[in-house]
Every structure is written in structure tokens, then in C-alpha cells.
Design a protein that fits this description.
mainly alpha; 155 residues; single chain; two-stranded antiparallel sheet; disordered N terminus; 8% strand; 7 helices
Length: 155
């Protein structure tokens, strides 16, 4: 978060200098409204910060294998917590904590269904993103970085 603020602050300073000096590499910004150019640049910086936040939340959600399994299960179809717990073979308490994390990350939504609550992906594009990530070719180094890699079968 602090790094993001520093990045945004540095971008803001560079944008202000560009506006004051007339643009990139001496090009002249002659819109007649220097405030408009400056505000557009600020908007771009804020959008960059928002994009970084979205990717960080997505990374946080994918950082845990159980959350990955939940997302993959919800990619197939919406489900109730009891069904998810049974399918994944984990306790409902543990599942509830992971679902709360996924809700906080903005990746899943709840839908009231009578007295029950159904979970589903927040956006249909997430299913495509998960498929793309799952099928992407990832170069893995031959050295194992995790201390438990041999036992866990990871890395």
C-alpha cells in the first residue's frame, strides 16, 4: 500500500511537471485548458493505482489452494456453502473464512435464496480469467524453492 502511494505520488509529480513544461519530451500541450490536461493525467494515475489494487486482490485470492479450489468450483456453477464444504472436503468454518476473503477481494457474490445463501462468481469474466490462468504455460525453474516441495508436490 505504501509503495502504491509512493508510485502514485511520483506519477502525480511527473504529470504536474509535464503539464507545466508543455508535455512529453518538449511536445506542446495546447488544449487551451492546462487544468484539463493535468486532471486527465491525475485520472490516469488513479486508474493505475486501481488496476494495481485489483491485481493485488486477485493475487491474494489465488495465494491459497483452498480459495483456488473454491473459485474453480464456482466457475462450474453457483453453490451453497454446505455443498462446497462437502465437495471440497473441508469444514464449514474453514470454508466460511475463505468465502469471506473471496467476498472481500470482490471475486464472489452472495445471492439470498430464501433462508439460504448461494455463492457465485462476481463476474462471468472471472471464469474465463481462471481458465486462461489455469491453461497458461508457466516456465518453472528446476530448482525447488519451497522447503516442503518434495513432500507437497508443489513448486
Amino acid at each position: 500500500m505504501v509503495g502504491e502511494r509512493r508510485l502514485a505520488s511520483a506519477e502525480f509529480t511527473r504529470a504536474r511537471r509535464r503539464t507545466e513544461t508543455g508535455g512529453f519530451h518538449g511536445e506542446h500541450l495546447d488544449s487551451g485548458f492546462p487544468e484539463f490536461s493535468f486532471l486527465c493525467t491525475i485520472w490516469q494515475v488513479l486508474t493505475l493505482a486501481a488496476d494495481i489494487d485489483v491485481l493485488a486482490r486477485f493475487g491474494r485470492a489465488l495465494a491459497d489452494p483452498i480459495r483456488c479450489r473454491i473459485l474453480l468450483a464456482l466457475r462450474e456453477a453457483p453453490a451453497y456453502p454446505s455443498e462446497l464444504a462437502d465437495t471440497l472436503g473441508i469444514s464449514r468454518t474453514r470454508l466460511s473464512n475463505h468465502l469471506a476473503c473471496l467476498r472481500d477481494c470482490g471475486l464472489v457474490d452472495t445471492v439470498a435464496d430464501g433462508r439460504r445463501t448461494r455463492y457465485e462468481l462476481a463476474d462471468a469474466r472471472l471464469a474465463h480469467a481462471l481458465d486462461d490462468l489455469r491453461t497458461a504455460v508457466v516456465a518453472v525453474h528446476t530448482d525447488r524453492t519451497c522447503p516442503d516441495a518434495a513432500e507437497q508436490g508443489c513448486c
